Amino acid sequence: MNFETEYKNINFKISLEKEIFEDVTLLMGDKFNRLPNQTMIEIKKGTLGPYNLIITSSQKDGEEYIHYMSGILLTTDEEEVLDELGYYLEQENILDDIVAIREKYSITPGPAWKVS
Questions:
Q1: Is 62 exposed, middle or buried (0-12, 13-18, 19+ CB in 10 A)?
Q2: CA pair distance 19, 96, nearest whole angstrom
Q3: HEC profile of the chain
Q4: In 21, 39, 55, 72, which residue has its Cα 20 to 30 A from 45's Cα atom?
């Protein structure tokens, strides 16, 4: 599933890919990072699944960053997944975080060695 949006003068291309796994127990993690039992039940039933989120952010100057997140648990219902993804992006401040990263790493006017 692919779509585009613009936020704070940055263009975002967002791609959501469902992860394919053979054994649901691989999602369990170690003893310190285990998923709650109810979440595992929903995954086993197939109503909840892990997704990869690939976001490409670019500005008019052509500078492009790619941001990759994996293991995002969302509904498997195709009619609801887009709404749930929007809620996830908003709740986790994903786009705001990307904007902050872009501002942090933008080089204007540049490092001292480049300016002089």
A1: exposed
A2: 25
A3: CEEEEEECCEEEEEEEEECCCCCHHHHCCCCCCCCCHHHHHHHHHCCEEEEEEEEEEECCCCCEEEEEEEEEEEECCCCCHHHHHHHHHHHCCHHHHHHHHHHHHCCCCCCHHHHC
A4: 55
The torsion angle over the Cα atoms of residues 87, 91, 95 and 96, rounded to 10 degrees, is 150
Give the model's pLDDT for residue 49: 87
- Domain count within the chain: 1
Report the C-alpha gap between 16 and 86 in whole angstroms: 11
Residue numbers in the chain where pLDDT is lower than 50: 116
Residue with tokens 């039992």: 37
Q: What is the pLDDT of residue 44?
A: 83
Residues 72 and 53: beta-carbon distance below 8 Å:
yes
Question: Domain residues for 28?
Answer: 2-115
